[in-house]
Design brief:
Layout lengths: L3 H70 L12 E4 L8 E2 L4 E5 L4 E3 L4 E15 L2 E12 L3 E12 L4
Antiparallel strand pairs: 1-2, 1-5, 3-4, 3-5, 5-6, 6-7
Length: 167
């Protein structure tokens, strides 16, 4: 009959090695999941900033449109304030375009609005470029730029053309 105590002494170390290998595989798997979650959070911030920048760029064109409409309503020339090439800035409450000062747009936590009056500094800057094409056409280009941590520099541009179609 073989000696059972001698057999158990030889196989005792295998359990520790198997446990260490199993724990190592589990740790490597968890680290992979954590790396994936970390990258996902970073991409979520980037996509969120891209969406906000798209809206801010579109708002720049809409502000220009509102100024043109106000000119018409007040009986002023339709292109008053848009008669020369230039780079400008404006926010949702602007009555006209101001010369560009490369200021960052501020975000007001109380009103949830972006502007230049008050709030905390956002990563976004907006430049509204005006290019008169002719006496009856204006090209507006609204460009929003920002920098994300670790992702680099980004830029979104929205362009529109406005025409003097009224007699």
């Amino acid at each position: 009959m073989p000696d059972k105590s001698r057999h158990n002494k030889k196989s005792g170390g295998y359990l520790i090695i198997e446990s260490m290998i199993g724990i190592s595989i589990a740790v490597v798997g968890l680290l992979g999941v954590l790396a994936l979650l970390s990258r996902s959070v970073g991409l979520n911030r980037t996509v969120s900033n891209q969406l906000t920048a798209n809206y801010l760029a579109a708002e720049g064109v809409e502000i220009s449109k509102n100024i043109i409409d106000t000119n018409i309503i007040q009986g002023n020339p339709w292109n008053q304030g848009f008669d020369m090439d230039g780079k400008f800035e404006a926010d949702y409450s602007s009555a006209n375009l101001e010369p560009n000062q490369n200021r960052r747009i501020l975000f007001d936590n109380l009103s949830n609005l972006y502007g230049y009056a008050n709030g905390s500094q956002s990563p976004f800057t907006r430049i509204i470029s005006v290019h008169p094409v002719g006496p009856d056409e204006i090209k507006i280009n609204s460009t929003v730029s920002w920098t994300d941590r670790g992702s680099g520099k980004f830029q979104v541009s929205v362009e529109d053309h406005f025409f003097n179609w009224r007699p």
